[in-house]
Write a structure and sequence with these properties.
The protein is an all-alpha fold. It is built from six helices and no strands. It has one domain. The chain is elongated and about 65 Å long.
Length: about 170
């Protein structure tokens, strides 16, 4: 059969598939990193609860560092600190869940963003001192988990998995 130009109507070859397709299941290092990412999200929620549970200690800490604050100013400072903690906690919890989903799918950009987020978590340990013991324990556990995530996503089986799932052009 010919088309309007007299040429045969051969089918066009399919466009190359540029979607990343992993070459098999994720290695255990990636699976374990994803599990730890989910655990970090859970720890974030526990941290939020701990922040509210230690509200009086937060109030005392602010009062001690800013003795000139009036009662209403102190209440405002505590509420701002709690609001900031909630906002940050929710953002990082959602971020961990989204990143875990894309890391499991083999998206290299998600691995890189995960390294950045986990690196921020490791660096944040500097700000934990002077907080209630529960917050310090949660922060230290979080740092250990962040380091494990970084290492698990950097080792050879993980790197091979992410490089095999890059788009082919």
């Amino acid at each position: 059969m010919t088309d309007q130009y007299g040429a045969g109507s051969a089918a066009m070859p399919p466009a190359p598939d540029s979607a990343p397709v992993p070459r098999g299941p994720a290695p255990s290092s990636v699976v374990n990193a994803v599990r730890l990412m989910y655990l970090s999200a859970v720890l974030g929620i526990i941290g939020l609860v701990a922040t509210f549970a230690t509200k009086d200690a937060l109030r005392d800490s602010i009062k001690e560092s800013q003795p000139e604050l009036t009662g209403s100013e102190l209440d405002l400072a505590v509420n701002i600190a709690l609001g900031f903690a909630v906002a940050l906690g929710v953002v990082f919890t959602v971020l961990w869940l989204v990143l875990a989903s894309f890391v499991r799918k083999g998206r290299n950009w998600a691995r890189i963003v995960t390294w950045i987020v986990a690196g921020i978590g490791v660096l944040s340990v500097v700000g934990i001192f002077g907080q209630p013991a529960l917050n310090i324990v949660l922060a230290l556990v979080g740092v250990i988990i962040d380091i494990a995530i970084i290492v698990l996503l950097a080792i050879k089986p993980s790197s091979e998995y992410f490089s095999s799932s890059r788009p082919r052009y």
